[in-house]
Amino acid sequence: MDRPRVFVARLIPEAGLGPIRASCDLDVWTEDTPPPRAALLDRVAGCAGILTLLTDRVDDELLDAAGPRLRVVANYAVGYDNIDLSACARRGVAVGNTPGVLTESTADLAWALILAAARRVGEGDRFVRSGSWRTWGPMLLLGIDVHGSTLGIVGLGRIGQAVARRAAGFGMTVLYHQRERASESVETALGATFVDFDELLARSDIVSIHVPLTDETRHLIDAAALARMRRTAVLVNTSRGPIVDSAALAAALADGTIGAAGLDVTDPEPIDPDDPLLRLSNCLIVPHIASATTATRARMATMAAANLLAGVRGEPLPTPVDLA
Ligand code: DGY
Rounded CA gap, 237 and 263, in Å? Predict the structure, then answer.
């Protein structure tokens, strides 16, 4: 029997590649950077399955290039804003993602950014390395306290909840906002209070973003939202870059509208080397690494491979994205 042809758009951990190789005709993009568009369109031709990353745009053009044999797109991410779901639905192509397995690692990184931005860890490290450290200083690198402060979580889904759980150890007041209020049991377990968006912005010492990127959330944090925040507030984004208006954030950090930011995601990615955010000492940026632990990336690979293999066999995906 013919082995189904599949394209994997980047080298992923062997935990995922192994099972795919065992039963498919596997083609993997092995370079460190994503396949350029022309190469991607070329390599997916005739495939029954494609394993994509958040850097690969899946749209009509790509699906047409793949052709009628395509049954599944397995995204190696929990987010799937890179995929045009209606284009997949129109062709009967199933879509899978990797929910759950990266929740705790992402929450850990959100906390790394909260602590580092609030306590100026990046600035301190640069200060020491530059040879500027002369003595203990009463006014040196003063930040804000994280313990006992108020954490505002925008989006109390899986990751938002994991971030909130960690706040208990810091004795924080936890506020949250999302479209629909969470159940009473979730609120009670987390000690989280539902407030409207403006109140969350006004009351939080730290605002952490955990909503997916949609038309509704694009530039959710714009100049007006930033103006409602406290002048000492820390903004943390581990979700998707375009949820924050980068130009407005740079202006707010430069003129003291807010205190600091910790970003795992930028708009665009990678960030332009001339982006004003890179000139601001109160903006800490890491390169979209929230799920980047060896164990989590292996779990994501296993899950994406399971989706890919189920899809090429015409079976229900273990973790499908709802295309309705
Ligand atoms: C995701 O899964 O959506 C992250 O951004 C990458 O792990």
Answer: 5
What dihedral angle (degrees, nearest 10) is formed by the CA atoms of 223, 145, 189, 78? 50
**Catalytic residue numbers, as ranges:** 240, 269, 288
CATH of domain 103-285: 3.40.50.720
- Residue 291, ligand 1, Cβ within 6 A: yes
291 Cα–ligand 1 center, Å: 6
Condensed to tens digits (0 to 9), the pLDDT of residues 266-288 reads 999 999 999 999 999 999 999 99
pTM metric for this prediction: 0.97
Tens of pLDDT, residues 199-225: 999 999 999 999 999 999 999 999 999
From 55, 81, 102, give the residue whose CB has the most ligand 1 atoms within 8 Å, as the site to mutate: 102
Residue 77 near ligand 1, beta carbon < 6 Å? yes
For atom 1 of ligand 1, the residue with the nearest CA is 77
CATH topology match: 5-101+295-312 vs 103-285: yes
Any ligand 1 atom below 6 A from CB of 79: yes
Q: List the chain domain ranges.
A: 5-101+295-312, 103-285
8 A C-beta contact, residue 301 and residue 17: yes
Q: Which mutation among 106, 211, 240 tests ligand 1's pocket best, with the greatest number of atoms within 8 A of CB?
A: 106
Which candidate, 209, 202, 274, 200, places its Cα nearest to that of 231? 202
Spatial separation of the C-alpha atoms in residues 150 and 167, rounded to whole Å = 9
Please report the beta strands in the chain, taking only residues with DSSP state E, as ranges in sequence order: 5-8, 25-28, 49-52, 72-75, 94-96, 150-154, 173-177, 192-194, 206-209, 234-237, 260-263, 283-285
Summarize pLDDT for 229-266 with one digit per residue, the tens: 999 999 999 999 999 999 999 999 999 999 999 999 99
For residue 301 and ligand 1, the question of a CB distance below 6 A is answered with no
Q: Which CATH class is domain 5-101+295-312?
A: alpha beta
